[in-house]
Design a protein that fits this description.
By secondary structure, this protein is of the alpha+beta class. It has four helices and 13 strands.
């Protein structure tokens, strides 16, 4: 009977505290901290400078875009970036936008970054990585800035495939929601409790929503204009 009591206590202890020893817990904590410390890795696909230089020669096409988001800015849904919404766009002024030739080097960089983000979303134990672009990439691009209405323009673009990238933004939203504060007991005329009435209060909150935008685009041969509707969307990896 004594052994049975010990066994029951052991099972309860395992259920409550798990089977992890302090040393194992410390090892897990160290592993997680290491995974959250980004390591830098170079993109192995070589940068084709000749291709990039040719892509950035002057052409006669114009890219016209508008940069916006649809993050909820108030109420109990403040900070949410719904996938489908009929709400009006919020235009983003004074934001830098870049146009880069879609070289194999850049495509590999973007693929690796997205792959690492997806792996990290599935498990925080996956090593965080920052991939390093060849510095020559930044010699072959156009840079512009959105106007007061969120519009941006790239002029004298030749036919070819490009990547349009906007500077990451943090959207700060304020909202409020009704939360339960407690229960008030009700009594009958004899002083006997007969029920409870919930009491609520408004709670204000602020939330930061990191958003990003990047898109491959193509100027066809003979095409003069390309219009882009560039919606910036929430990316949890930027938190």
């Amino acid at each position: 009977m004594q052994y049975k009591s010990i066994s029951i206590c052991l099972i309860v202890s395992i259920m409550l505290f798990g089977c992890v020893s302090p040393m194992q817990k410390a090892d897990q904590d160290a592993k997680l901290k290491q995974a959250n410390t980004a390591v830098e890795e170079k993109v192995l696909t070589p940068f084709d400078e000749k291709q990039a230089k040719a892509a950035m020669q002057k052409g006669d096409a114009t890219i016209k875009g508008v940069l916006y988001h649809k993050v909820n800015s108030y109420g109990k849904n403040a900070g949410n970036d719904p996938t489908i919404t009929m709400s009006p766009p919020t235009f983003l002024p004074n934001v830098k936008v870049w146009l880069l030739p879609a070289t194999d080097h850049l495509a590999e960089y973007l693929r690796l970054e997205k792959e690492n983000q997806n792996n990290r979303a599935r498990s925080k134990n996956v090593q965080l990585k920052h991939y390093i672009l060849d510095e020559r990439v930044f010699n072959y691009m156009q840079t512009t800035q959105t106007d007061a209405s969120g519009r941006y323009f790239f002029k004298n673009v030749k036919s070819g495939r490009y990547y349009v990238l906007a500077q990451n933004q943090n959207i700060i939203s304020s909202g409020s929601e009704t939360v339960l504060e407690g229960m008030t007991t009700t009594y009958n005329r004899f002083g006997i409790p007969i029920g409870s009435i919930p009491e609520y209060r408004n709670q204000d909150f602020r939330v930061k929503t990191p958003i990003e935008y990047g898109e491959y685009v193509e100027i066809k041969s003979g095409q003069k204009d390309l219009t882009l509707e560039s919606r910036m969307r929430f990316n949890p990896s930027l938190l």
